[in-house]
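User: Please predict structures.

Assistant: First:
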Amino acid sequence: MNSKQRCARYAQSLIKEGMIVGLGGGQTIQYLIEEIKEKNRNLKIVTPSAKTAMLCVQKGMDVVPLQWIHSLDMAFDGCDEVDAQFCALKSGGGIHTLEKITASMAKEYILMVDETKYAQTLKYTHPIVLEVLPEAYSFICERLKELNFIFAYRQTNKKDGFLFSEHGNVLIDVYLSSYIDPKTLYDLLKSITGVVEVSLFVKEVTGILLAREDRVEFLRK
């Protein structure tokens, strides 16, 4: 059993019969789905990830659309980086707005990570992603230049041009050359008119399942 599987098994032990559970995306979540399926619990699953939703349906789980639910008992997700202050950076999927809605709905929002993704402070080895209204794209780029940020619009190798979010918004990757406090950075970027959401999670995370080489630690806020 690898570290991600151990993490998923620990997460499964926290889930109780009849809960409404949010699931993000990634390999550890896929392992968690397998764990849930084996226990055959009477759960409702909510997810911002189309891939996760499809896998849950294939496993015979009850998947409920996000807009039909106003609160979750628990939500589990992965991330690119998380620090000791429970601030996290999620860059990969480009669905961070929906992930943040899911996180905000949850009584407990728990990230599952291995040691390589956990540090005392965020290292910003991944970009901060902005979801922005298309009409505000040029304005936001100019504002980012004024703030001396390095940035680029996100592209896809499957077509020429912008990669859009599920809601038709543009994704901009912002790169840091030096450390900035995550909460300060979030407030600064979110304050730019036209920014829908920022892929920094500075208040949502309530727990971290940290997979070490020989054990899983449950860190609580």
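Second:
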Amino acid sequence: LFDRKFVEAVLQEWSKTMMHLPAGLRQAYEM
């Protein structure tokens, strides 16, 4: 369904975004 390289790139970008989220947003997300 998805190209493996595409999935890996998306996961990389997602983890990067999660790491750069402000602490407040991260707390709200975890709630």
